[in-house]
Amino acid sequence: MSLWKLKLGMIGTLALIIGVTTLFLAIILEYMGMLTPLTLIIFVAALNFAQWLFAPYLIEFVYKVKPVDPGHWLQETVAKIAERSGIAPPKVMLAEIPVPNAFAYGSPLTGNRVAVTRGLLESLRREEIEAVLAHEIGHLVHRDVQVMMVVSILPAIFYIIGRSLILSGYYQRRDREGSSGFVILLGFASLVVSFILQLFVLGLSRLREYYADAHAATTIEDGATKLQLALAKIVKDTSRLAKAGVNLAAFSDFRTLFIADPTSSVREALEIRGDYRLVEELKSQKLSFESRLLEIFSTHPHIVKRLRALDEFRK
Q1: CB-based contacts of 273: which residues, under 8 Å, 6+ apart?
Q2: Would the CA dihedral through 11, 17, 23, 29 be positive or negative?
Q3: Is it the case that residue 200 has pLDDT exceeding 50?
Q4: pLDDT above 90 coverage of the chain, percent
Q5: Phi and psi for 17 in degrees, rounded to 5?
Q6: Which of 130, 136, 268, 295 is catalytic?
Q7: Cβ atoms 235, 260 nearer than 8 A
Q8: What is the pLDDT of residue 15?
Q9: 105 forms bridges with which residues in the sheet?
Q10: φ, ψ at 44 (rounded to 5°)
Q11: Is 81 helix (H, G, I), strand (E, B) or coil?
Q12: What pLDDT does 271 receive?
């Protein structure tokens, strides 16, 4: 998937999210008056903003994250990639969890941070970890944490409005006041809009994963091949951990941050051997209807589609 197609796709998805939001919010404001929806919007926006500010502390507590030791080779690697990407080097962190993964996060209180897991260091070679880090720095370059925080507010707003309207209509009906039937109908419609917007948000998240993959592919030498190998190994090793009894659901709370969704990696893995042979066999896998359907509800593209998209950047 080329960069211009990715950019057009993200712009189009954002336009759809904003358009649906504006249209349906206008209908609700017209019916209810401005005060109640505006209060809800301010409340949800403030809640999400506070979550963004303090989320790094929660992430570091949940995933046992700490700074890497001074002089660790990861610091030099991150500094080089950040320089090529035109941003200040983020702080490098290590998460003491066995699942091979990495994530970028941060807020004005903590600054930008990039973390790798202990499992990633044990599963991948250095050049593959370099590609993973370039992907995560791509998220920071594109301000994905901030973008996804803002668009995630919209489904939450309509969900809260929908529940409020349904409850309001229910009590109006009990008191035999006003057009309660229309209020309840509007409430259910708001819940439907919330669900549709959430699908758009998930779609935007998947597009931004492709965009971060493209950043890694174009920032480091032979980045596409290195990232393909890294993604394939992450999926395979995550599946192996699941079969060994590791509870992957325990690491899914912030899966939108990860380079690969640990819960879907089990579905996507194939038990095969070899290095790039692993990539080739994954790319040749035919996606079932079930896989395509489940991807709609995922924060990350299916591994097969990501590997195929990276082929466009291989020399």
Answers
A1: none
A2: negative
A3: yes
A4: 38
A5: -60, -50
A6: 136
A7: yes
A8: 66
A9: 113
A10: -65, -40
A11: helix
A12: 38
Residue 56: which domain range? Answer: 3-313
Question: Amino acid identity of 197?
Answer: L
Q: What is the structure's pLDDT at 21?
A: 64
Q: Is 122 exposed, middle or buried (0-12, 13-18, 19+ CB in 10 A)?
A: exposed
Give the sign of the dihedral formed by CA 96, CA 98, CA 102, CA 107: negative
> Which residue, 141, 133, 131, is CA-closest to 94?
133
Element (H, E) at 54: helix 35-62
Kindly report the backbone phi and psi dihedral angles of residue 91, in degrees, each rounded to the nearest multiple of 5, phi listed first: -70, 140
From residue 117, alpha-carbon distances to 68, 214, 255, 284, 313 in Å are 11, 22, 13, 29, 27
Q: 103 - beta bridge partners? A: 115, 258
Q: What is the pTM of this model?
A: 0.79
Judged by DSSP in three states, 142 sits in coil
Tell me the angle at which helices 180-219 and 73-85 cross, rounded to the nearest 10 degrees: 100
Instruction: Answer yes or no: are the C-beta atoms of 278 and 272 closer than 8 Å.
Output: yes
Under a CB-based contact definition with an 8 Å cutoff, are residues 258 and 95 in contact?
Answer: no
Q: What is the count of structural domains for the chain? A: 1
Is 136 catalytic? The answer is yes
Tokens standing for 110? 């903590």
